[in-house]
Design a protein that fits this description.
single chain; alpha+beta; Pseudouridine synthase; nine-stranded mixed beta sheet; 27% strand
């Protein structure tokens, strides 16, 4: 098999699933529509033969999926203003605004933080994560504001990635959530994985999720909302949003994890801000901590509440 062909042995738990749905559970970085196109184009073989997307798989079926090499998109530097909280020869910490995507992806090849970084840093960005994510070692959601650390070289990237893996980086967020939280503080220890039916969402997934731990403390209570600080011990996708929704206190403005909740303040996405970021400097070992000021909309909302 060439390097673009993936071989899957169907597990018993996927027995009688549609082929396209089965593939999605193994290849969740690809969309169902794209997988269906691969099947239609004859690039998916089940036990050596082509079948349709609605084929019901059987346990121990051998599936070969050939994924054509994708054309590398042309990512260009763009003169987009950046708010830099800290910078030296190895790293910088950027205060990301609301609405900005961190790195390019289908539908977002310009206007991202990476486009801005390529202009600002020129050729001084780590290359470990490839051309779509130069310098990027972690990210925050499009509508989350605040601190993102960027690595200028591979030495710094390896160090920060290791710190993230061992959970030694300080990451404190502030958020406004629905409802009044009774306890002054608490810990949510619940694994997070893909939602079983909606692949664009994450969910607490006891069976297939990865360890996820969030510590929260109440900063202020209002009549219908609570202002909280959340400290990440792990860094799963949408972790705070999923965890707070899981305990019945979804984030104000979160259109994905607070369905049916009124967005009476006409917010653009969740009210979540990555405020404190602390790490050991890759070269000196000195502890560096930055604090991203609350964005104007967040300050105004707190005054209203």
């Amino acid at each position: 098999m060439d390097e673009n062909t993936i071989t899957i042995c169907v597990s018993e738990e996927m027995e009688e699933s549609r082929l396209d749905k089965c593939l999605l559970s193994y290849m969740d970085t690809l969309s169902r529509t794209y997988l269906q196109k691969l099947i239609k184009d004859g690039l998916v073989l089940v036990n050596g033969r082509t079948v349709k997307a609605n084929y019901q798989v059987k346990a121990e079926d051998m599936i070969n999926v050939t994924v054509p090499p994708s054309a590398e998109p042309d990512i260009r530097p763009e003169n987009i203003p950046l708010s830099v909280l800290y910078e030296d020869d190895d790293v910088l910490v950027v205060d990301k605004p609301k609405g900005m995507v961190v790195h390019p992806a289908p539908g977002h090849y310009s206007g991202t933080m990476v486009n801005a970084l390529m202009y600002y840093c020129r050729d001084s960005l780590s290359g470990i994560n490839g051309i779509l994510r130069p310098g990027i070692v972690h990210r925050i959601d499009k509508d989350t504001t605040g601190s993102v650390i960027v690595c200028k070289n591979d030495f710094a990237h390896a160090s920060i990635a290791a710190q993230l893996k061992e959970h030694s980086i300080t990451r404190k967020y502030v958020a406004i959530v629905h409802g009044v939280i009774k306890n002054d503080q608490g810990t949510i220890d619940a694994p997070i994985g893909r939602h079983p039916t909606d692949r664009k969402r994450m969910a607490v997934n006891m069976r297939n999720g990865k360890e996820a731990v969030t510590h929260f403390r109440v900063l202020q209570r209002f009549s219908d909302y609570t202002y909280v600080e959340c400290r990440l011990e792990t860094g799963r996708t949408h972790q705070i949003r999923v965890h707070m929704s899981h305990i019945g206190h979804p984030l104000l403005g979160d259109e994905v994890y607070a369905p049916g909740r009124k967005n009476r303040y006409h917010l653009q996405g969740q009210t979540l801000h990555a405020q404190i970021l602390g790490f050991s400097h890759p070269r000196t070992g000195a502890y560096i901590e930055t604090c991203a000021p609350l964005p104007e909309y967040f300050e105004r909302l707190l005054q209203i509440l």
